[in-house]
Amino acid sequence: MSGLIGKKIGMTSIYDASGKNLPCTVIEAGPCVVTQVRTIEKDGYEAIQLSFDEKKEKHTTAALKGHFAKANTTPKKMVAEFTRFEADHRKNYGDILKTDVFIEGEYIDVVGISKGKGFQGVVRRHNFQGVGEKTHGQHNRLRAPGSVGASSYPSRVFKGLRMAGRMGTDRIKIINLQVLKIIPEKNIIIVKGSVPGHKGSYLILERWK
Amino acid sequence: MKEDFVKFVENTVIVKKDFPKFKAGDTVTVHYKIIEGSKERIQQYQGVVIQLSGAGVNQTFTVRKISGNIGVERILPLSSPFIEKIEVNKRGVVRRAKIFYIRELRGKKARIKEKRV
After folding, report:
1. In angstroms, rounded to a whole number, what is the distance separating the alpha carbons of residues A59 and A75?
2. pLDDT in tens, A181-206
3. Which B positions 63-92 lie with beta carbon below 8 A of chain A?
4. Residue spans of alpha helices (H) in chain A
5. CATH superfamily of A3-117+172-207
6. Contact call for residues B64 and B47 (beta carbons, < 8 A)
7. ipTM above 0.85, yes or no
8. What are the chain B neighbours of A190 within 8 Å (beta carbons)?
9. Does any CB of chain A come closer than 8 Å to the CB of residue B13?
10. For residue range B2-25, what is the model confidence (pLDDT) as tens digits?
């Protein structure tokens, strides 16, 4: 696996070589700093920790200041661990990873936090059909959840039954997004299609071989 | 403010061609590249521009023509790589930016006054 941390910038559309107009997302990815290396001897698993996006020193706790000082870098906002990073990409503390981790045309996975939708009913949240029809004597049951269970047995509602509630702000991974273009001098990666989250939200880009 | 990366991408990745300026009411000929299998040919499409919509690289224009008594409209992106050339044949005098009223008109009523240069 290799990866980077990025930030969603926004969407647009570009033309490919055959003239097709493709929807795409612009992502500002990297430069990421290696701030910790996990080893089997010490931690029981292999991973590296990457950090991205500058943070003001006055907003950083003393503990984190020390953590970043160990990698000889300034404080960063977003920190994420990448397990089993590719061996030939094995990095040391303070190494900087840029967009050259990926190549144009390959397929990557993008992880983000989806937009919050607020308190939503079952029709929107779980794709329920609602109850019955709009007319023919029926009223105010069009978007209702229907029955939530039997009566005397079990005399309760089962756990985990899908109901209305808060929707969105979930960790979502979109797999197999094609990298359409990389602009290394601006740290920009353009992927085909959409990615989760609002503009400016952090994304984890990764590639599994 | 931070640099707008979306605008940057649009301006660098998409090649903007130099077409003559035109607006609604003008008669244009669009030289449109068509790929059939491995062969390439250029089709000419002439008609009246009825609207320009959008801005920047996303700008599109609609060309209307009457083909055998049936109105045909094509919406084309200005930045489309298939457009080879745009010729402006006539400059029309219209009072609106979008001349949708021309869809209801037929024959002599659908004429657009030509601009005297």
Report:
1. 9
2. 898 888 889 999 999 999 999 999 98
3. 77, 79-82
4. 40-43, 62-70, 122-126
5. Translation factors (2.40.30.10)
6. yes
7. no
8. 9, 13
9. yes
10. 668 778 877 777 777 788 899 899
